[in-house]
Amino acid sequence: MASVNLVYRDNGFGLSRDFRLLAGALRHNGCEVYATRLDAHSERRRRRRGVAACLQAPRLLAGSLRRHLAAPRFDLNIMFEHLWPEQRPLAQRNAVLPNPEWFDRHDQRRIGSIDAVWAKSRDALDIFQALGCSAQLVGFHSEDRLDRDVPRQRQFLHLAGGSRTKGTQRLLALWRRHPEWPRLTVLQHPSEALETPAAANIDHRIGYLDPRQPEALHE
Q1: 3-class DSSP state for residue 114?
Q2: Taking CA atoms, which of 1, 9, 137, 178 is between 20 and 30 Å from 101?
Q3: Rounded distance between C-alpha atoms, residue 175 and residue 182, angstroms
């Protein structure tokens, strides 16, 4: 039985949902699944350059040496969104499931240390192949929210979340210029939401939608 360690930030939103979906799929296919849940301290260490990190925190150097000298505990690490160098020695092989909009210069600097890039879209595949990576298209999956009791309507949904890279403000501005267009519902995290003029065909919801209550979208 292959042992797979999932390395991710447990943010309570998209990454946590991705973890649950992938963990379930791996177990269904006979893998032994482990989880390394990272926090804000892990994110700060990821952003440091290797030498600077060692000079600032000698204990990190000792811990890193112990991890490199120890035998790998897992057959495979799957890293979500970023490359997490402290976790790399834990497995014989390392793969990353990147979100290109969050893949920063710290990740690009370490891309040569990874065995495989698993792209969730063809756009991501093109990006990482252009960087010279061993990249394969794996696609993505989501939870089935279909409610057959709700009649289909000609409406649109934009899940902005807490991202700054989805063009939400441009989309809202475009939709306001077309009052004849169907209803657009936008779900956005309060940290990124800006005050915008109201429009009869825009339902801009700021906050978190409880996934257990999908009927709230149909109100």
Answers
A1: coil
A2: 178
A3: 9
How crowded is residue 30: how many other Cβ atoms within 10 Å of its Cβ? Answer: 8
Percentages (nearest 5) of helix, strand, coil residues in the chain: 35, 25, 40
Neighbours of 60 (CB within 10 A): 16
Q: C-alpha 49: how far from its chain's center?
A: 23
Task: State which fold the 3-137 domain adopts.
Answer: Rossmann fold (3.40.50)
pLDDT tens readout for residues 119-161: 999 999 999 999 999 999 999 888 887 788 888 889 999 989 8
In angstroms, rounded to a whole number, what is the distance separating the alpha carbons of residues 149 and 167?
32
pLDDT class of 61 with cuts at 50, 70, 90: low
Secondary structure (DSSP) of 139-188: ---------TTSPP-S-EEEEEET-SSS-HHHHHHHHHT-TTSPPEEEEE
Instruction: Show contacts of 137-141: CB within 8 Å, 24+ apart.
Output: 138/97, 141/21, 141/25
Task: Report d(CA 214, CA 158) in Å as an integer.
Answer: 15
Query: Letter for the amino acid at 111?
Result: I
Alpha-carbon span 182 to 15, nearest angstrom: 31
Residues of the chain with CATH 3.40.50: 3-137
Query: In DSSP terms, which residues pair with 202 in a beta bridge?
Result: 184
pLDDT tens digits, one per residue of 162-217: 888 889 999 999 999 999 999 999 999 888 888 888 899 999 999 877 665 555 56
